[in-house]
Design a protein that fits this description.
By secondary structure, the protein is an alpha+beta fold. The protein is built from three helices and five strands. It has a three-stranded antiparallel sheet with strand order 1-2-3, with no helix packed on it. A two-stranded antiparallel ribbon has the order 4-5. The protein is globular and about 40 Å long. The N and C termini lie far apart (34 Å). The model has no long low-confidence stretch (mean pLDDT 78).
Length: 131
Amino acid sequence: LQQRKAATSVEPATVDDLRAGRIVVVAPVVDVTADGVSLADGSVLDIDLVIAATGFTTGLGPVVGHLDVLDAEGVPQVGDGRESLPGLRFIGYEFVPGVIALAADRAVRVAEEISRDPSTARRVSARPAVP
């Protein structure tokens, strides 16, 4: 997995959230706009946040490859939660032991930073969403 720059984890709470419908898997994103995303099935979602769980490969090239934020292998050049571009952050692309726990810590830090940003503070909160 390290050679492929990939990590895996199955968190029981995530499985519970999927089963309960608190997490919804959608069709692949084909376009990201200022207002939301267009999906491969033709639907359009009016959203404020995209979380791309890309699995065993980054799969980011078709989504953000044109933004010059990926290296030659398709891995984010900045993968520790700092902004790659205004409003664009990647978490979990640090290939170290304990990356899952590290990504969780980074996610909390990023959520707090976003909630303090005046351009997003009215739309987001560092608190987890409640279904």
